[in-house]
Amino acid sequence: MSHELWFRTPAPDWFEALPVGNGHLGGMVFGRIADERIALNLDDVWSGDGPRTLQVPDGPAVLADVRRLLLEDGDRLAATERTRALQGPLVESYQPLGDLMITLPGADDFRDYRRSLDLRTGIAAIDYRQGGVAYRRESYVSTPDQVLVWTIKADVPGSVDLSAALTSVHPVESTVVDSRTVGITGRAPSDLTIEYRESPDPIRYEDGRGIGFGVVLRAFAEGGTLGTGPDGITVEGADSVTLVLSAASSFQGWKVPPGRKLPLPDAVRLVDAVAVDKLRQRHLADHTVLYDRAGLTLGTAVDLPTDERVRAVGAGGNDPDLAGLLFAFGRYLLMASSRPGTQAANLQGIWNAERRPMWASDWTNNINTQMNYWLADVTGLRECFDPLTDLLEGLAESGRETARILYDAPGWVSHHNADLWRATWPVGDGGDDPVWAMAATCGVWLSAHLMEHHRFHPDEDWLRDRAYPILAGAAEFVLAMLVEDRDGRLQFVPSTAPEHHFLLPSGEKASVDLTSTYDLWLIRELSANLSEAENALGLSSDLTTRLSAAVDRLPAIGLTDDGRMTEWPTDWPPSEFDHRHQSHLYGLYPGNQIDPVRTPEWAGGVRKSLELRTSGRPAGGWTSAWLIALYARLYDPQKAADVVRDYTSRLVAGNLLHRDGDIFQIDANFGMTGAIAELLIQSHTDVVRLLPALPAEWPNGSYHGLRARGGLSFDVTWQDGKITEALVRADQSGCFRIALGATAEPVEVELSVGDARHLV
Length: 760
Hints:
Helices cover about 30% and strands about 25% of the residues. The protein contains 18 helices and 33 strands.
């Protein structure tokens, strides 16, 4: 089982550097010899100067116009354009923090170089020899101590000379804190134009406005001399050096402007609190216990550099262990970018080098944020889910005001984009395409994750206190948005199929319509989730009764004449038959309303839809992950394996981060781990099925710690595609139906809390 990425050369650019992080503080380690760079991020350093007030004075009147245009006039193009009047400001952008630059004089003549990232320990390292001296450097970010640690050791005493400095793309001031500590202070942009909008002055700093930050660097040297000055820290003739870096921001919560004082003292307190001789031990104790909860072994480990393995797969080679490493890497990245008390993982997790990153490096809530968390529960990272709950609570609070202003509706709404300040409105200021801006059920989708989390980890208190109010608020909003059409059916208006236009008979493109299939799946699922939550809590509300009755009056899920799943209420021709979104197939995955056994006609509609969707251009990164999960639910391992191979050969950098040209989105990495898990265990029906869609390319393997809904975890081993060992552990008591294989009949297994039972 591979736990390590390794390379023979330093990273050529930011995309190939090695990520470290603790959810709050992140770094990209380049592994350069003479001029090491660690690019830094802090999860709450964004552009902007606090929450904004939505200025849409006539939202309900606009909504009435849109409904009239759709329900009475049937004018989809005019309705699409009219929704632009509902758009509020664009979101703010996630920001880089700075760089730790370390210079080692004369270190450009080296040999025996090896750069690595040990996923199990969370330590990025480089080893090399220079002038007869062996050096080892390590970098990691500690969760217990909330600092980044960089060390260098030499096997010959007195061989370490270096200088270290802090820099930033933002305007900063440097300071000497004490005889071994330096720092910088600055502010993120107070105003910034998102990257896809033209502006003569896109990045603006205003005195006293914007999120302030402080970064502190302290050195500890064994032997030699250490000094500090305006240019940073210098060390000469040391045996070893440890650099400890801390950072703090003036962000005080999404509801208030940031603090005006620069937070350098907060960063100093963090480094003051560390016990340098305990840092590594405390980091390992925290990291390994979480990482070791689950793991996957596929075939035999290949002892070649990771980038060479990627190129070999691209050339047609077979490397099952690389798929296992992809799986492990996704878990590592979530651990490094989403921990209790931090912001949720955004479009780039926690790592971003640009002041105007692609799509603001925000939370994009029509698939991307959701995909970030597909892996959390099934791969044993329960704690890493916490920031998503925090994000939803903020969106639900902010979204109540948006629902009132735009729609005169109760409950809460969240549209396509969100940022640190919990924007929940359609973004664009009237200038963005409604095809993505006008997505009013993103909050409904996000709320589904709460019920799924409870299924994996039943917790009545959490369900009552945190999840249920969010589910209920989403239901209130949906009920208010349902209107009756001429046939007496209820329609959610306005509705879209995320980011996909349809073609009108005139040849023009539109995107807003009556209830899309995507929205039908979400509303049906919300009703079932609310009912399940109330049953678990012993509640019975009028809200659940009304939503259930409303679902009975929704339009039926349809199939086109050629057997595909419909995407819009009319069989409009899609503007892109191979579009990246699979939203109309939500009922299969991540939903559970379609099943090849229970609903074969719908499953057939999904297959026909996928034939069309995959018949054109190759899939992108996160699209590939969704395709794999869909094929897994259809019990089609060969098509899933083909996508895994295609993704690995085209869409990852040498360090396995998703890369498509100069675009990095981390949802693909997270989604691949969640989708691979779906090939190995499924529990979305009343049967827990082990190895439901095992690719032939993975004939031998094992996993441990993969979880099923109901509070179960499994260790499974297989040979020649057949299960040879299967152990189940129970966190909950009950009678469970478990199937050992893709076609095996399920057996009933009675388990009590704490049971561990061999099934084979």
